[in-house]
Amino acid sequence: MSAPREPLVFFTDRDLGTRFPDILTEAGLNVRRHRDHFPPDCPDEVWLEAVGKNGWIAISHDTRIRYKPNELAAVVRHRARLLVVIGKAPFPQLAKHFVATALKIAEFVEQHQAPWIAKVYRPSMTELVKNQDAAGGVSLWYPPKKS
């Protein structure tokens, strides 16, 4: 018998606004909001350190974070786990899709050791036509897969 998994704790970056974390919380996910722990102008390296030390899983909408040397270094140095929500849509819609993808996200987290950055995708339009509550996908972005 395996040990019970600890519940995942998600940390939402300030770039996701207020409704995104509220929707995740309403869905039963354990969420820590940027505004409850840091000032609005807090550098990303600082909250990435806290995410790593606390074992939280960060969620951001900033697709550039992987390309900023100081922020990528903070992910690696502090063994952070970072999910980047991909797509241009209203944040409530992105949050709804994130919740629908929560099981895939939990599986991804269990299968990957920190540090990492992963992309969380919305379901395709074809999938949404078939099922409004369709799950999206999760794929590793950093470190790159070895060939």
Overview of the molecule:
By secondary structure, the chain is of the alpha/beta class. The chain has a single domain, classed as Rossmann fold (3-Layer(aba) Sandwich), CATH 3.40.50. 37% of the residues lie in helices and 20% in strands. It has six helices and six strands, in the order βαβαβαβααβαβ. Strand 1, helix 1 and strand 2 form a beta-alpha-beta unit. The N and C termini lie far apart (34 Å).
SSE topology sketch:
Blueprint: E1 9-12, H1 19-26, E2 30-33, H2 44-54, E3 57-60, H3 69-77, E4 81-85, H4 91-100, H5 102-111, E5 116-121, H6 125-130, E6 137-142
Parallel strand pairs: 1-2, 1-3, 3-4, 4-5
Antiparallel strand pairs: 5-6
Structure, briefly:
The protein is of the alpha/beta class and 147 residues long. It has helices spanning 19-26, 44-54, 69-77, 91-100, 102-111, 125-130, and strands at 9-12, 30-33, 57-60, 81-85, 116-121, 137-142.
Please tag this protein with its features.
147 residues, 20% strand, alpha/beta, six-stranded mixed β-sheet, Rossmann fold
